[in-house]
Amino acid sequence: MATLLIAEFRSDQIGSPGPIAKVPPLAEQTITYTTSTASAAFNVGTAFVRIQTLADAAYLEFGAAPTATTANTIHLAADAVEYFAVTAGQKVAAYDGAS
Questions:
Q1: CB 28 within 8 A of CB 8
Q2: How far is CA 19 from each of CA 13, 49, 62, 74, 85, rounded to the nearest angstrom?
Q3: N- to C-terminal Cα separation, the chain
């Protein structure tokens, strides 16, 4: 089973002189996935998230009730980190692409 780490940040947690997240994050989540698995809804105030894959790649989909597939989602390589602007209340779903 693959693992996805999610850290949520407010818009005022964007550092200067560039897009550097200030810690601690507003909230953190960990989801394990093989088939499409969604996170909990992002907190009120969450403006962007830091997504990190552990060991396995992930296909991602964002939305109110997201379903990640290999056909219509963002692909994040194994052991990768990426930041995404989001809306509070959205979720992210992850899928390993093989199950």
A1: yes
A2: 9, 12, 21, 21, 11
A3: 10
Rounded distance, CA 58 to CA 13, Å? 26
Name the residue among 54, 60, 53 with its Cα closest to residue 37: 60
Residues 1-28: tens digit of each pLDDT: 788 888 888 877 666 556 677 889 999 9
Contact 67, 93 (CB under 8 A): yes
Distance of alpha carbon 97 from alpha carbon 72, whole angstroms: 12
Q: How far apart are CA 77 and CA 18, in angstroms?
A: 24
- Position of tokens 């088939």? 35
Give the chain as a DSSP string.
Answer: -EEEEEEEEEGGGB-SSSS-B-SS-SEEEEEEESS-EE-PPPPTTEEEEEEEEESS-EEEEEESS----SSSSEEE-TT-EEEEE--TT-EEEEE-S--
